[in-house]
C-alpha cells in the first residue's frame, strides 16, 4: 500500500513483480497490460493495484448497484427516444479504458497546458497512453465512425484520495445526441442551425469563437436555445425517473473545453447540493474534425457512484467494490425501480468454507431438499451463519454418483471469527449432515 504513489522507478519495479516485463533492454522497460505491451517512460505512473481494477466492469456486474443504475439510465434513453420502433441511442459499455492522450485530451480541445493533464491527476501508462480520466475520451472516435446518438458507459481513472466519496476508479455514463436542421426544426425550413458566415461545405475555414457566453459563434441563438431546452428537459426527466418528481434541483453555469455553453446539474440531497453531471453543446470544431459538419449536438457526463450512493443510501464509495455477499444480496434480483435502502452489514470479516458431498443412491441432485439442508446448517451453526448457497451440482460420468457443493458463509456480528473456530463448527455441521441425510463428505 505504501508503494502506491512512489515515483517512476519504484512504481515500475512494483509493476515488474506483478506483470510480465521485458528484461531484454534495461533502459527500455515495458508494461504488459492484457496481453499488450506498452513502453514505459518518465510519465509512467500506473501501479499494479490500479491495473488490477481493469476489466472488473462493476457497471456490468448483475447485482452491483452501479449496474442497476446503469440499466435504469439505459432504459430511460431507450424508451424516450425511438425511431421507427428502434432505440435511437446505441450503447457502448465495453470500450477499453486504455486510451491515447489524443483521445482523452487533444480531440476534445483540451489545451496542452490544461491542469487536467498533469501526471499527478492521471494514471499514465506512458507519455502518449493513459487510463481514461473520463468517458468523453471516446466521443470523437464514435462520431468519426458515423454515430450520432450514443451512450458511453465505463470505468474511469483519476489519481485521488481514497475516502468515503472518492475512489481512484469510478464509473461514468457519457452521451452525445446530434441533430440535423430537419430534425431540430421539423416543418420550419427557415430556421437554421448555423449563422450565414459558417459554410457547412467549407467548415474548416470558420474560426469558431466561444467569447459570447450564450452560444458558439457558428450557431444561431434559436438552435442553441432549443438544444439547451431539450438537453435540460431530457436530463431532468432522467433525474425524476431516478429520484422521483419532487426532487429539488438547480442548473449551474459551468466550463468544459469541449462544450459551450456548459452547465452542471445539482440535486438537493440529504441537506446539501450535490453535483451529479456536467453537460453542454458540443464545440463545433469537434464535430467538424470528426466528420459531420451539418449537425448540432449536446453531450453530458454523469457519475454512477454518486447516483447509486444517493439512491440506495450507500455511505461509502468503497462498498461498490465489495464482493461481500452481505452487500451484494441486498441488490440481488431486485425490481429495477424498487426503492432499496442499504442496510449496513457487520464490519467483521466473513469466512467462507465449502462443503461437498456424495448423495446416497436414493437421492439425486434434483431431489435433494436444499431447504432441509439450510435449516440443519442454521440449527448447528447458529447465528454466525450468514448465508448458505448452492455452488455446484455434479454427476460422475462413470459411477453416475450425484454430488453437491454448498458454500457456507460465516460471520459473527460482534467479533472476528478465527478460521480455526469456523473449521470446528464446519466439521460439526458435516457430521450432522452425514447423520441426517446419509451423504458422504468428499
Ligand atoms: C467530466 O468528466 C466531463 N467529461 C463531463 C462532461 C461530458 C461534460 C460531456 C460535458 C459534456 P467531471 O469531472 O465534472 O466532468 O465529472 C462528471 C461527473 O462524474 C460528475 O458530475 C460526478 O457525477 C462524477 N465524478 C467526478 N469526479 C468524481 C469522483 N472523484 N468520484 C465520483 N464521481 C465523480
Ligand atoms: Mg464536475
Write up this protein.
- The chain is of the alpha+beta class and 442 residues long.
- It is 27% helix and 26% strand.
- It has helices at residues 8-18, 48-51, 65-80, 101-104, 139-144, 181-184, 221-243, 284-290, 304-312, 325-328, 370-381, 419-437, and strands at residues 30-33, 36-39, 82-83, 86-87, 90-92, 98-100, 124-126, 129-131, 149-157, 169-180, 249-256, 259-269, 272-282, 295-303, 351-358, 385-395, 402-410, 440-441.
- Strands 5-9-10-14-13-12-11 form a seven-stranded mixed β-sheet.
- A hairpin with a 2-residue loop joins strand 3 and strand 4 (86-87).
- The longest helix is centred in the middle third of the chain and has 23 residues, at 221-243.
- The two termini are 39 Å apart.
- The model is unreliable at 1-27 (pLDDT under 50).
- The chain binds adenosine-5'-[phenylalaninyl-phosphate] and magnesium ion (MG).
Amino acid at each position: 500500500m505504501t508503494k502506491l504513489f512512489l515515483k517512476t522507478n519504484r512504481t515500475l519495479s512494483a509493476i515488474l513483480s506483478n506483470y510480465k516485463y521485458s528484461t531484454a533492454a534495461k533502459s527500455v522497460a515495458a508494461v504488459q497490460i492484457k496481453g499488450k505491451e506498452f513502453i514505459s517512460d518518465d510519465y509512467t505512473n500506473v501501479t499494479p493495484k490500479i491495473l488490477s481494477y481493469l476489466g472488473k466492469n462493476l457497471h456490468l456486474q448483475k447485482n452491483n448497484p452501479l449496474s442497476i443504475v446503469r440499466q435504469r439510465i439505459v432504459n430511460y434513453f431507450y424508451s424516450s427516444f425511438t425511431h421507427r420502433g428502434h432505440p435511437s441511442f446505441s450503447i457502448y459499455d465495453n470500450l477499453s479504458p486504455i486510451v491515447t492522450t489524443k483521445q482523452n485530451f487533444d480531440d476534445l480541445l483540451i489545451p496542452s497546458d490544461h491542469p487536467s493533464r498533469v501526471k499527478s491527476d492521471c494514471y499514465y501508462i506512458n507519455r502518449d497512453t493513459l487510463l481514461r480520466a473520463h468517458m468523453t475520451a471516446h466521443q470523437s472516435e464514435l462520431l468519426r465512425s458515423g454515430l450520432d446518438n450514443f451512450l458511453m458507459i465505463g470505468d474511469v481513472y483519476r489519481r485521488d484520495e481514497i475516502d468515503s466519496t472518492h475512489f481512484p476508479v469510478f464509473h461514468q455514463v457519457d452521451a452525445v445526441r446530434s441533430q440535423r436542421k430537419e430534425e431540430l426544426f421539423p416543418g420550419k425550413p427557415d430556421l437554421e442551425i448555423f449563422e450565414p458566415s459558417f459554410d457547412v461545405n467549407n467548415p474548416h475555414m470558420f474560426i469558431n469563437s466561444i467569447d459570447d457566453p450564450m452560444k458558439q459563434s457558428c450557431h444561431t441563438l434559436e438552435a442553441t436555445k432549443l438544444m439547451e431546452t431539450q438537453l435540460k428537459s431530457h436530463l431532468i426527466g432522467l433525474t425524476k425517473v431516478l429520484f422521483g418528481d419532487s426532487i429539488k434541483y438547480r442548473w449551474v453555469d459551468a466550463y468544459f473545453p469541449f462544450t459551450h455553453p456548459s452547465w452542471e446539474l445539482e440535486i438537493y440531497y440529504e441537506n446539501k447540493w450535490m453535483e451529479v453531471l456536467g453537460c453542454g453543446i458540443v464545440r463545433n470544431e469537434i464535430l467538424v474534425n470528426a466528420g459531420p459538419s451539418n449537425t448540432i449536438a449536446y453531450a453530458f457526463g454523469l457519475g454512477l457512484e454518486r447516483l447509486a450512493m444517493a439512491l440506495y443510501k450507500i455511505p461509502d464509495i468503497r462498498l461498490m467494490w465489495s464482493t461481500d455477499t452481505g452487500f451484494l444480496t441486498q441488490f440481488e434480483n431486485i425490481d429495477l425501480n424498487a426503492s432499496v435502502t442499504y442496510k449496513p452489514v457487520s464490519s467483521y470479516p466473513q469466512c467462507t468454507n465449502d462443503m461437498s458431498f456424495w448423495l446416497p443412491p436414493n437421492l439425486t441432485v434434483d431431489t435433494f431438499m436444499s431447504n432441509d439442508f439450510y435449516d440443519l446448517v442454521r440449527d448447528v451453526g447458529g447465528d454466525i451463519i450468514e448465508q448458505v448457497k448452492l455452488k455446484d451440482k455434479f454427476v460422475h460420468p462413470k459411477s453416475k454418483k450425484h454430488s453437491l457443493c454448498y458454500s457456507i458463509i460465516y460471520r459473527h456480528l460482534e467479533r472476528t471469527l478465527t478460521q480455526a473456530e469456523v473449521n470446528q463448527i464446519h466439521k460439526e455441521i458435516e457430521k450432522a449432515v452425514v447423520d441426517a441425510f446419509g451423504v458422504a463428505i468428499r
